[in-house]
Amino acid sequence: MIKTHYNIYNYINTMRKGFLYFMEKTVKISINGIVQGVGFRPFVKRLADELGIKGTVSNRGSYVAIEVTGDEAIVEEFVEKIKLDAPDRAMIQRVEIAESEEIQYFDFSIITSAHESGEIMIPADIAICDKCKRELFDESNRRYQHPFINCTDCGPRLTILESMPYDRERTTMKAFAMCPECGGEYYNPTSRRFDAQPVCCPKCGPRLRSDYDGDSAEALSHDTDLKKIKET
Fold it and tell me: How far apart are CA 204 and CA 181, in angstroms?
């Protein structure tokens, strides 16, 4: 009797899993518009993790490419949330969705970019956001008075770009290897600096140079009082 119940349980469980698998689908999503340099890939990654969707996201130069596998209703919710909750600096012009062959993903990840032809829109440099401004003047913060402070929501974009797609290795920031602290933020999906290409700090970022009274340029340390620079 126990063996019979066990077999029935296994049969029902197998059928249930098969039904759920049948309801899942894989789709390719192309997002066109201002979607580079605005924190779009980190946003998509966090949204996918929130909804339990597996797949990938990457830059393709003129658009962001997303491929996901999940429950049909959840995938539809995912697409709607992308449209409604996109980063403030993003501007979605077109969303294209196409069903794809079933692919088994084990998580959701940001993968290597690839350049494809098409119209490319990159935002201008973005003025410092309120959160970075608070850090800038917080003496206990490791980026206190750091002139190149930035995050996913602000900082240089177009002026540091050398080629597309927009990734750190194709910007002037490629010359500045991230320190462990900045690297920890860059690779942490919960961080405000997750996948922020210009991320840096006084330890690993560019240094400010100034010309005093027409003399040759002098390198300033990161702890130089910003007031001195303003007064000269």
Answer: 10
Q: Please confirm whether the linkage preceding 165 is cis (ω < 30° from 0).
A: yes
Buried b (16+ CB within 10 A) or exposed e, 58-81: bbbbbbbbbbbbbbeebbeebbeb
Return the DSSP state at 145. T
Distance, CA of 109 to chain centre: 10
134 pLDDT exceeds 80?
Answer: yes
Check if the beta carbon of residue 163 is closer than 8 Å to that of residue 173.
no
Sign of CA dihedral 186, 188, 189, 191: negative
What is the pLDDT averaged over residues 92-107? 88
pLDDT for 64-86, tens place per residue? Answer: 999 999 899 999 999 999 999 99
Query: What is the rounded CA–CA span in Å between residue 136 and residue 73?
Result: 43
Which residues are paired to 56 by β-bridges? 67, 109
Whether 39 contacts 152, CB under 8 Å = yes
CA–CA gap between residue 216 and residue 103 (Å, rounded): 60
Lowest mean pLDDT among 51-55, 61-65, 141-145, 158-162: 61-65
State phi, psi for 5 to the nearest 5 degrees: -60, -40
How many angstroms separate the CA atoms of 22 and 27, rounded? 14
